[in-house]
Amino acid sequence: MTALSLLFLAMSAACVLAESTVYFREQFEDGDAWKSRWEESKHKTDYGKFVLSAGKFYGDADKDKGLQTSQDARFYALSSRFDDFSNKGEPLVVQFTVKHEQSIDCGGGYVKVFPSDLKQEAMHGDSVYNLMFGPDICGPGTKKVHVIFNYKGKNHLVNKDIRCKDDEFTHLYTLIVNPDNTYEVKIDNKKVESGTLEDDWDFLPPKKIKDPEAKKPEDWDDREKIPDPDDTKPEDWDKAENIPDPDAKKPDDWDNEMDGEWEPPMITNPEYKGEWKPKEISNPAYKGKWIHPEIDNPEYTANSEIYKYDSIGVIGLDLWQVKSGTIFDNFLITNDPKLAEEVGDDTWGKTKEAEKKMKDSQDEEERKLREEEDKQRRDEAKDDDEEEEKDDEEEEDGEEENEEEEEEEEEEDDTESPMKDEL
Question: Could you tell me which residues are annotated as the binding site?
Fold first, then answer.
């Protein structure tokens, strides 16, 4: 085989390896047909139900339809299967959109990617997964992006705090895992975190450990400052902390026999200086802080394939929500980060502005409605006050009339009395 043929084969192989592959994509564009592709777990009988909806506000009524949680305080367990593959030697990209239009107080917005041997009808919180990725919110203290990998049967959380979006709008979440053991997390197609799998997760034991044989020498002096040996306590230093009040006087009515011997009350001694300590000086024998020597960890073994999963075949929504209303959409699993970015721009990117405009319009309408209702309540309250005042005035007028009548009756009685006396 000639050198030219070998070069051609090498270039062909490189093209094959660089070819974009979409392993899974779901945009819910065919109505209720999604139910044939997604399966609800039967591990529990009271899982919350997903419904197809674009929500209360959106950029496109059809394109923005996704799976929405519909029942409060429920676990949800739904998954979809695709052709099994391994990400060996290529990037793994997991991407989807999340919209917490209900102003979520506590609940998950993440996805799980499972090996193909998952029994979907039995999926639950302890089912073994390859990775878990996405936002999780619970109160003001938890607003993070989870990035959890399963490595040798144990789930490992990222060591960094990656903050998620906590507003009511749709956001695009992207995880990229590269075959050189690096990773990148993007929100709305912008990088928010990156690094290496070995540095940012505790997959492997540390490369270095403290030498168990090393000990700090007994004559090692790590005191930076020491008491001055030449410093002496002044002769007049020691004073009592409390002394009798010199201005106090025995009360005139004090009776020693009845009250006992009078003693003046104690007060803080203004001349008291506290415990004497010699001043400190630099330690001439100071050798610095002793640093424990390190050695290579015999338990450490490098692994160039931390990133790799031999089987990837199911994506699932396995989460809990207190307040429902979250919408999941635009799922994508591919080996091409550039393609994922283009898909994100073509889906979330094209509807985000219209979504915000619709939400702002709804907020403005609600604001006006509240103002009208407040004005109506104020007017009704004012009418009620005026009616009460009118009733009070009428009542006062009635009382005055009664008083006048009573006075007239009394006068009549007064005039009739003499006549009765004469008769």
Answer: 27, 63, 65, 110, 112, 129, 136, 318, 329
Q: Could you list the residues known to form a binding site for an alpha-D-glucoside, using ranges.
A: 110, 112, 129, 136, 318
The pLDDT profile of the chain, 423 residues, written as one tens digit per residue, is 444 444 444 444 444 445 899 999 999 999 999 999 999 999 999 999 999 999 999 999 999 999 999 999 999 999 999 999 999 999 999 999 999 999 999 999 999 999 999 999 999 999 999 999 999 999 999 999 999 999 999 999 999 999 999 999 999 999 999 999 999 999 999 999 999 999 999 999 999 999 999 999 999 999 999 999 999 999 889 888 999 999 899 888 888 888 888 899 999 999 898 999 999 999 999 999 999 999 999 999 999 999 999 999 999 999 999 999 999 999 999 999 999 999 999 999 999 999 999 999 999 999 999 998 888 888 888 877 777 777 777 777 776 666 666 666 666 555 555 545 553
- Tell me if 320 sits within 8 A of 75, measured CB to CB: yes
Number of domains in the chain: 1
The answer to whether residue 263 sits within a structural domain is no
Q: Is residue 254 part of a domain?
A: no
Q: Is residue 70 included in any domain, yes or no?
A: yes
Question: Could you list the residue range(s) of the whole structural domain that residue 43 is in?
Answer: 22-203+305-354
Query: What pTM was computed for the model?
Result: 0.75
Binding residues for Ca(2+): 27, 63, 65, 329
Q: Look at the block and give the residue holding tokens 């009394």.
A: 410
The CATH number assigned to the domain holding 104 equals 2.60.120.200
Is 149 a member of any domain?
Answer: yes
